[in-house]
Amino acid sequence: MNVPTRRLATAVVGFSPLQCRLASSSVRQAVKTPPAKPSSPTPSSRVTRSYKPFVSPSYNSTQKPNISSSPPPPPPPSHGPKADTLLDIWRRAWLPLTGASILAGFLGFYILGTTVATIKSSPCSSSAPCEHATPTGRPPALSGDNAEQFDKELNLPEWWMGITKLRKKLAVHAKGTVLELAMGSGRNLEYYNWEPLSTAVEAARTGNIPPPKIPQGITSFTGLDISVDMLDVSRQRLAKSVPPMAASAPIVKASSMADHTGGQLSFLDGHVRLVNSDAHHPLPPPTHTEKYDTIIQTFGLCSVSDPVAVLSNLATVVRPGTGRIILLEHGKGYYGLVNGLLDKNAGKHFAKYGCWWNRDIEAIVEDAVSATPGLEVVKIERPNITQMGTLVWVELKMATKEKTA
């Protein structure tokens, strides 16, 4: 027994043995069991919301926050989409606006030019009495040196009106044996394909005649006009456009008609000819074939007294079936305003240029088809919209004998 137990046993005198044993056991348990630690107070059942600091939309998580500075203010409220500025509108619409401006400029320039030309009174205010005046084909104002000057003055107007481009397109259709009627100063000559002509001339000289077929170019050419002065300008152009012409001397045939037409210049063994004649008269046949493969005329129906008779005349010399008559003409357009201006100035224009620019080309073609058995329309179109329908492209052909029969 240890000391504390002994002292406790000595103090409990008069207790029964059982009570002593119980007391001794309690003491030992008290010695072994350490005193309990005071328990922590029970946490309260009240739940509080955790603090979340304000984060600006421009906050970058990689940057260290500045504790000392205050958070930035919230962005101002939005007031809807931002209105377009003039610069924004221009960036979106500059292309269509530019195109519309160019088109309006062309139309305005054409109408203005036609209006200015009608300021002075003209001898004919409509097509009634003057339309039946006999055209001279080429007026005196375009004779002599004026013919060459007139040709030069056409360069700029034909370019901006799109006529130069149409001449190039028309020249592609000139194939085989070609007749150009009312050729004037020869403004189409430089656009033709003359390469097959050199081959044809060489073949004729050597006797090696190729098999008959229509090549992609001209093998022989006949140009016809009522003005000798215009044909002289054409002759100079031919010398520059056709390579074999430089070393070829012309064969001149004098006029045999009372109106001093019928003269002829022949080059390269008859493969190139310039004929001074009236389109109403019988047309010269080709030199080496019976019919022409292609007949070309640019702005000729306006300067003849009977355009229907001229078209019927062309139908007699074009090859049936494969041959083509191709016309580029000017006349009445789409709009009454433009047609009225053309009518008002028609007499003055005829007096200066020998041309009735207000004729209805489609109506003339329809009348010619009705009056000429076998003549058919292949195509009629108005190719240049900026001229408001005043330019007309026409393609005609003659049916074969089997079809006409």
From TrEMBL:
Start-end of Pro residues biased regions: 70-79
InterPro entries named in the record: Methyltransf_Superfamily (IPR050508), SAM-dependent_MTases_sf (IPR029063)
Polar residues composition bias: residue spans: 57-67
Keyword Ribosomal protein: no
Protein source organism: Hypocrea virens (strain Gv29-8 / FGSC 10586)
One Gene Ontology MF term: methyltransferase activity
Presence of keyword Ubl conjugation: no
TM annotation in the entry: 93-112
Superkingdom per UniProt: Eukaryota
SUPFAM superfamilies: S-adenosyl-L-methionine-dependent methyltransferases
Coiled coil segments of this chain: none
Residue numbers spanned by region Disordered: 26-83, 123-143
Protein name (database record): Methyltransferase type 11 domain-containing protein
Keyword tags: Membrane, Transmembrane, Transmembrane helix
